[in-house]
Amino acid sequence: MLSVFWGKQKYVTIKPREPSSGPVADGLWTRCPSCSSLLYTKELTKNLSVCDRCSHHFRMSAWDRVLHLLDADSFQEIDQDLEGGNPLGFSGYEQKLAKSREKTGLTEACLTGEGRLSGHQLVFGAIDFGFIGGTMGTVVGEKVCRAFEYALTKRLPVVMVSAGGGGARMHEGILSLMQMAKTSQAVERHSQAGLLYICVLTDPTMGGIYASFASLADIILAEPQALIGFAGPRVVEETIRQKLPSGFQRAEFALNNGMVDAIIERKELRKVLARLLLYHDRGGRQLC
Amino acid sequence: MLSVFWGKQKYVTIKPREPSSGPVADGLWTRCPSCSSLLYTKELTKNLSVCDRCSHHFRMSAWDRVLHLLDADSFQEIDQDLEGGNPLGFSGYEQKLAKSREKTGLTEACLTGEGRLSGHQLVFGAIDFGFIGGTMGTVVGEKVCRAFEYALTKRLPVVMVSAGGGGARMHEGILSLMQMAKTSQAVERHSQAGLLYICVLTDPTMGGIYASFASLADIILAEPQALIGFAGPRVVEETIRQKLPSGFQRAEFALNNGMVDAIIERKELRKVLARLLLYHDRGGRQLC
Amino acid sequence: MLNGVFEWEKPLIELEKKIEELRRFTKEEGIDFSAEIATLESRAENLRHDIYSRLTPWQKVMIARHPRRPTCLDYIELIFDDFFELHGDRTIRDDPAMVGGIALLEGRPVTVIGPQKGKDTKDNIARNFGLPHPEGYRKALRLMRQAEKFRRPIISLIDVVGAYPGIEAEQRGQGVVIAENIRQMSFLKVPIICVVTGEGGSGGALAIGVGDRILMLENAWYSVCSPEMCAQILWKDTKKAEEAAESLCLTAQDLLAWKVIDEIIPEPPGGAHRNHETVAMTLKEALLRHLQELEAQGADELVAKRIDRYRQIGVVW
Amino acid sequence: MLNGVFEWEKPLIELEKKIEELRRFTKEEGIDFSAEIATLESRAENLRHDIYSRLTPWQKVMIARHPRRPTCLDYIELIFDDFFELHGDRTIRDDPAMVGGIALLEGRPVTVIGPQKGKDTKDNIARNFGLPHPEGYRKALRLMRQAEKFRRPIISLIDVVGAYPGIEAEQRGQGVVIAENIRQMSFLKVPIICVVTGEGGSGGALAIGVGDRILMLENAWYSVCSPEMCAQILWKDTKKAEEAAESLCLTAQDLLAWKVIDEIIPEPPGGAHRNHETVAMTLKEALLRHLQELEAQGADELVAKRIDRYRQIGVVW
Lengths: 288, 288, 317, 317
Ligand SMILES: [Zn+2]
Ligand SMILES: [Zn+2]
Description:
The complex is a heterotetramer, with 2 copies of chain A and 2 copies of chain C. By secondary structure, chain A is α/β, with parallel strands linked by helices. Chain A has helices spanning 4-7, 41-46, 62-69, 93-104, 138-154, 173-192, 207-210, 233-240, 251-256, 266-287; strands at residues 29-31, 38-40, 76-77, 110-117, 120-127, 158-162, 197-201, 219-222, 262-263. The relative contact order of chain A is 0.11. Residues 1-25 and 283-288 of chain A have low confidence and may be disordered. Chain C is α/β, with parallel strands linked by helices. Chain C has 2 domains: 7-54; 61-312, 2-enoyl-CoA Hydratase, Chain A, domain 1 (Alpha-Beta Complex), CATH 3.90.226. Chain C has helices at 10-29, 34-52, 57-64, 72-79, 121-126, 134-149, 167-171, 174-186, 202-206, 227-235, 241-248, 252-257, 276-295, 299-312; strands spanning 82-85, 98-105, 108-115, 154-160, 192-201, 213-217, 221-223, 263-265. In chain C, strands 1, 2, 3, 4, 5, 6, 7 and 8 form an 8-stranded mixed sheet that branches. In chain C, α4 packs across α13 (276-295), α6 (134-149) runs parallel beside α8 and α10 (227-235) packs across α11 (241-248). The model of chain C has no long low-confidence stretch (mean pLDDT 94). Classes of the chains: A alpha/beta, C alpha/beta. Chains in contact: A-C, A-D, B-C, B-D, C-D. The structure holds zinc ion (2 copies). One zinc ion (ZN) is lined by residues 32, 34-35, 37, 51, 53-54, 56 of chain A.
């Protein structure tokens, strides 16, 4: 029944550019916002964008996540041509989209595809913070949805790396909000088939992304110090009119509050994911 | 499969005595433990054992619950001949049982049967605090279980009035504990058939009774000021070595903490139960 | 807004006052002003139509927030024959910002849930201005699951600017509970009718807003977040809320065009707060009509159609 | 008890020390004591058998509480090839008094849960002396439901004197969460093996103790409550705990006779704390054996038999 939607799309179609890579900083040197060390950008990139002095985890682009986590040359992007417009006619939105496309080389804030992680076939998705703060508009919602539907059809596990700053994308109004329902339902249909979904919460995972598909994983991992929550810290501070406790909405806070299964350092992430995929490979084979 | 157990019982069989009635006090006058008023016992009984000065709800015997809540002459007791022994050979237990039987006219702490409430056919059960503190041993567990199984067979709703001070009955050790599993399972089998179960938490509902069938009702009502909890207040006080906040583990505390659907004064209880039964009668008829 | 009167309706209010005065004169002094009254009444009629048919999005937001606008419990009182409120999330707290229970709609049992704003300052503080904590959403979910067990339809009355953004709410997983509600509500095997009666803001509204029919009152608003928050996030200036309201396409008319909602429930001229009974009866009629349609469907069909409804949003525009 | 040595084993410990000394003499001084050593060893053997085959219930309670007795994480470390701990109840807190996660048992994935006592004072404070709050039980339930989704067997390692009796624990519904765990565990469609490894006290143990096989270590105890609490409730005197231990029939041998448990896992002489590896390997063998039997059954058969098992308790004795 759902397959009728696969062909039915009025998106403008463009080709994605060559993948960009490297951490947020462009220069030769990058200053660590946590310990203020001046880091040689090339070294930082080699170190998975983690400060080797204080272990601060810099944000990573969606393509860098693919390069870091998936087996070399195993990733096949899906739905790369999906591109949205400006449904509400929100002033300035088209320019914003154009700038983000140029900056990131992505058509939208979400990158999805099929690949392998330590030999385990899976569907992989990553949100790119560089694209309008990694917010979820209709195309991101649609791509997340299709990734889970693709995984359901091929009976594959899903690993998502989420980093959506503002959560839902304001510029698409109610249509953005509805993506929370759409993606949550896609996750649940995948889950009802007994398939595994692991989500890695990276800095930042907030609002509409946190309150939908990112929270509904079987296993939820988080990177150290990642900001995780529903309401933004500034909104909370203005509402309660008092200073926020230190560490508020950080991954460690979420772990203590029971919202996260484990905090994993980036350099361990690939190994941990491989272990978890292995556990579920065997279980699936033996009993299904 | 479960019917094999119905005939298989090695309980000693005795006939129950005539129902006793009246509030806990026996004399002509009863002092209210809450406002210290001296109340004429006959008047107190007529007032459903509620103090007319301060509204303190006295404990009620299981038979008085039947007289109060069910339509006149509609109650047919079931399993009244079930009686337990002293499986662990716990010293002094037989005498305790004998004394409780004499005092309450019941064979055990639980009274169950079929009856009508404002015309609604149902299975009704009540725990009698006067019988070893209304604790749950194997016979209480068995009777609760059979009540739910009886209701399942006849597709009837269940209303339970729980008042088990110590929760599980020490004197039957592990066998008492296992009644928590047995009764919880009986409740769930009844529930899976789409049938209604309402529990009225009366003073006191603690320990093993609270942590099993009493907590698993679709709708949980409580009498004002009833003590409701898992660990006894003295145990909590000794563990944390500080004074308990006033109102701790009272019905109002449970309501604020989200554990109870509503607190209902005794004089309203029959009417409220009738309304709730009505809601579910109609739903059942229209849609099942 | 002064004494519940908006700036833009002042000419009308003054006209109405004048008509009232002339009527009193006619009665008390015996002078006949009927011709003048007729003229003024026709002018008022035109003005009323003029004002209320051309409300800006921001004006609608204002009307949706009117302190005398009917609350969830008002609608429950006016629409249903009987209501028994059920409390608690069975986990941590009973949240007074969310109410729910079993009600009779023309004699048939339904489960009703909804955020509850206060009637006055004291009530508002007790009800946290109608901003639910995670336990409020958890209570709503518990009652919806109960409804599913007993095959009762669910009616969700939505009037919430957003889920409460506080420290404890974040600690107790506001995001997780919203996701969980959305997920479970999507697959409940009973008819669900959601009505945006006032404000519909963000995940805090959607957490009780996944259904088979989404109705919306004429002057309600529903969007990804409140205009204030949108202005704050995009332009770092809450004073640009009016501009944000324009940009967000948050009116019932907009949402009907997007097929995000199914029907607009008309309000009396001037807004629902002018006449609680009229809007409640209009809503009741709509509820009965949609319920009848939904109950003709099997549970599996219901769920499949519900999922498809959301699956479509954003695919075609 | 002094330095982890019980009063009643002192004669044996002294004898063992003497043998050790004679051995050293033989080695260091070259004097041959082999005949004396043989005599003493045979005497020690007899004494050991004498003491440990006739332990009183209270002595077993003491052994079950030995500070060096293996904890849940010790067993996990010794029995499984790999273990990934999962945290949190997704509601309010991660309870360090309850651990759980996915482990490999001879290469096959299982879900393991269990209360965790501390290894020293600091650890004990962090882990609340292994007394779980409601969120601990909720975490365990979450992991068990996850196991059900992925058809993983569940292994519950029970060592808990009871659910924590504190103000917040009561506020957050200790009773409700225990009932909910019992109810849901009863109907999970995967094999569940419960092992009482140390203490099994009250609803706090049963909340993770409903299963298809209930195993129990030789010196573990399991009852409706701790001997101390029984003495307190019945005789208002915790000093009568030893008497209560006698009355409660709480040993593995008693429970096997009642058919409440299925098998006793033997401990090395002197108790599990004397040799973690041995007891862990014995337990591992039993787990594998029972798992093989259970996995031959279909999910529905499994649940039906599980329910019948509890249905029988107390019907016939
Ligand atoms: Zn650094
Ligand atoms: Zn009184």
